[in-house]
Request: fold
Amino acid sequence: MMDTTLQEFADKIGHAAASGTPLRLRGGGSKDWYGQDVQGTVLDTTAYRGITDYEPTELVISARCGTPLAEIEAHLAQHDQMLAFEPPYFGPSATIGGTVAAGLSGPRRQAAGAVRDFVLGAVLLDGRGELLHFGGKVMKNVAGYDVSRLLAGSLGVFGLIAEVSLKVLPKPVAECTVRQPMTQGEALRRLNEWGGQPLPVSASSWHDGVLTVRLSGARSAVEAARLRIGGDALAQADADAWWGALREHDAAFFAEAAQGLWRLSLPSAAPALALPGTQLIEWGGAQRWLRTDADAATVRAAASAAGGHATLFRGGERDVGVFQPLAPAVLALHRRLKTTFDPAGVINRGRMYKDF
Amino acid sequence: MNAPISPETGAVSHREATAALLAVLPARCVRADPEDTRPYECDGLAAYRQMPMIVLLPEDEAQIIAAIAVCRQLGLPIVPRGAGTGLSGGAMPIAGGVVLSTARLNRIVRLDPLSRTAVVQPGVRNLAISEAAAPHGLYYAPDPSSQIACTIGGNVAENSGGVHCLKYGLTVHNVLRVRMVTTDGGIVELGSEALDAPGLDLLAVAIGSEGMLGVVTEVTVKLVPKPRVARVVMASFDDIVKAGDAVASVIAAGIIPAGLEMMDRLSTQVAEEFVHAGYDTQATAVLLCESDGIAEEVEEEIARMSEVLSRCGATALSVSRDEAERLRFWSGRKNAFPAVGRISPDYYCMDGTIPRKHLAHVLQRIEEMEQTYGLRCANVFHAGDGNLHPLIMFDANAPGEFHRAEQFGADILELCVEVGGTITGEHGVGIEKINSMCVQFSRAELDAFLAVKRAFDPAGILNPDKAIPTLHRCAEYGRMHVRHGQMPFPNLPRF
Reply:
């Protein structure tokens, strides 16, 4: 028997599919602004909530989609564990379902991995109202295609992610943040060189001539790395405030502005981009935030030339397409997969790309 | 003109197929004589064999595209193959079909120490990547036991792990980009040289897809710094429950060991007789718990691990003093399979994953099954990630024994599903566990997998009939989908 709340969701999806009425899935609504504009009747997932399984020694937590992210993090913290991908909330109402669907990761991503790296299993209520279980609650599982990781960052286009199981990790024993002045080119070079050495760098940022690096791990490893990397150590409260502000885009760089905010995902060693505007670099050089007056074509061409892609993350002229256009063969796969899980094409239609 | 498909059977004759393939490939890339194709009749799961019609050994991507086009036109099924070391029959040929080996695409295209990536062709061996990266202090982290022979293309197909994957991840965590040819002749690039790519994460689906979605022609892997030092703690326990609790306590203490392995008494004894690793043969279970990193960090972690293991009732504890001793401690575990092979004419290696807390229960049930089937079973366990390898011993020459071993194995996998685990942790489904898929997944879920396959391979010619069972197959197998120990429609009577 399906849970009654889930059954209600399934019925709504079934009606929407039968009548061809677009549905818009929403958890806490904290990331409503992310992705393409999407029309449709809102299906609010927040009633389906609660941690369903958590045993710290198994390193796995399972929760229903509407569970507040804050509740999950607080629960894990009681056992000195964490979601190692440091997901941004972008508002107190953030849910775990929305976190997985948005697929966004925070500062620790460079060392620990992204949301998709921690997804072990998911339950999907697809566009036909069918309840499908993929993956599981164990670390190693190669039975069937890995559809659960595919759901991370899918922006709900396959249906409602009803429940997820995530790998969790212990919090590091020690952390230390150091800061030093540096040019962008020098910072990119050093970050990549450090990445090739056994140093416990867990986060990094460069902006306006200042490089900030966080070290996490065993006490002795953090201490040895601090001496090696140099710079001035920040007080713990200041360090937490800095990484928190980056994670939540509360830092001054991210404050609302007339210009759009671009997210450039590049090979970490790509040289400094000669684009107009200001930049903030994270993830050892692999994530670069850009405020610019340059048009979308210019930004995307520069990102592509460097081996990456550009997303119009927030604001700006969004009719250029929020996400970088796909190669035709890859777009064809997207369309076919969309048809597989949502044959009527009614769930979060157009949230990722206009044509599905 | 293309060779016609014979109207009666839909099958293409050997002669027609060979001629059509020779028209697009050099003769040195086409093997059509049984004498030459015999080595490809099985992969690492040698109990399952099937002669292919033709074996192709293309040398570049253009030849792969040309070969696939011919196979599509003729309706010939294609089984992609790396080194053929897989343990689930994923590369076992299909009758009347083609084996497409990527072994000759074996070039490391580029290795960039600054960005810590390597671009490699699919036939490059796993260990060859680490060897090429070694001068830069880097390596490719996933280290399946077959790493001297297995190729990165095969690793992508199987999402291979290794003894270090709790800390360093599986193939899916260490591959940035895959380029592959689909059966419609298209080339798709999944992932990118950056940490993510626009759109859906199709890379995650391609990795572990058992050669059913596309033929991999190039892979970009991540390289990571080689740890300076590694040391291992070896601990004995007189009780399996205590050993299981010790594993949980290490994790609860906030430690993620670089490796965490458990062996039961039988596997400990046979391994000790074989390689003299210094194992405690009186122990009910032996744990190996490894730490790696810089010297100070390892010292700190080994001290914490030792303290936890002692507190959990270890009856003996030794820490490797140098690299030679560390390798000796590991030698028993790494030789457990051949050690079992010494005391039994044949053995059958299973590969289920369970939530660790059920270990004692599962081992006890396996002991009961040993009685039921009249066969012995040794157990080795990737304890950190719950991946259990029961080694069922049998004699293929004794009538009925292989069948009993297969039944025993299927029962173990069903037990893994019953306690909330999975039928395969790292070996893949292939042909071996395809029936057990009917137990783990519902019909709707299996249909979703088949639809994913169709999205990539509309012609359905790429490794068909592997990994995902059809409705017909599950009906024939006759076992029901089980979830949380519950049968579907529990209130309906069953006869």
